[in-house]
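User: quick one, fold this
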Amino acid sequence: MSSCSPGRRLPLRASLTTLAAALALVACGGSTSQVETFVAERLFAFGDDASVITPDGRKYSVNGINTETSAIDCRVQPNWVQVIAGYYGLPLAQCNSSATATPRAFTLATQGARVAEVAAQIEAQVAAGGFRDKDLALFFVGMNDVLELYQQFPNRSEADLLAEARLRGERAASLVNRLIDLGAKVVLVNLPDMGMSPYARAEAATYAASGFDRAAFITRLTTAFNERLGVRIRIDGRFVGLAQMDLRTQQAAVSPATFGFANISDAVCTTPLPACTTATVVTGADPNAWLWADATRLGLGGQGALATLALQRAQLNPF
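Assistant:
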């Protein structure tokens, strides 16, 4: 595998702060080489908990601590949106510690968002001025949709819920296509295998006696969503790049250490999100090497994987 291959792995144990710099070294051409390297002038993130920064600077992952003040500092342990904004040198409005008068990166993501709520996020930006050339949109949603559907079982049949998961994947794809029509370049990240989450594992253990593997069912819901999302997006590398988080988590399930993970099964946080910090994780754990922060949301290891895959797509697609 050449150093220019989009499959090249980067160590997730490195902090997210240094990840963008490391990825800059692997940006190169190949069959999708760009005549002029795409440089985002503005960035907008749409999605759910994984992309949120609260007004007081907290993230729904493992928060970093300012060593001087011992308080949560949004600049420490940045999430994947911050990493990508930082790569392009774009101040993020939700973590604007330098008090930049006109920040050019924004996360419109909201905690608990599903596909339906992301539609409203996009329309809010349309109302606020819309999009223009050199805008990059980050799109990552669906984890809450999959969990919501799973929690309707067995009152709804598996077949019915899988059909609904496919429909929501198609709706998500229509939102990606709308962003393209509005003029943005899009980096789309599909869902990690939610059947690997601590929540799914707990459900499987609770209902083991039934003979029906609940974790495997959550994986099937995830796959149904992702398949229709991938089929229905406008498959044109000039406008959209697909980062396959599902494959990365499934690969990590086979060989965690290969992808920099020490733990892919358990939650690293011992306090509820978004209050979790590097000081409130499992004793002895390196939070950068754990996939999950809590039962359903990504930790620093998961955020690192998001950032790695999304930046590779932004760099290698011929936007």
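User: anything notable?
Assistant: The beta strands are 42-47, 105-107, 135-140, 185-189, 240-243, 263-267, 290-292.
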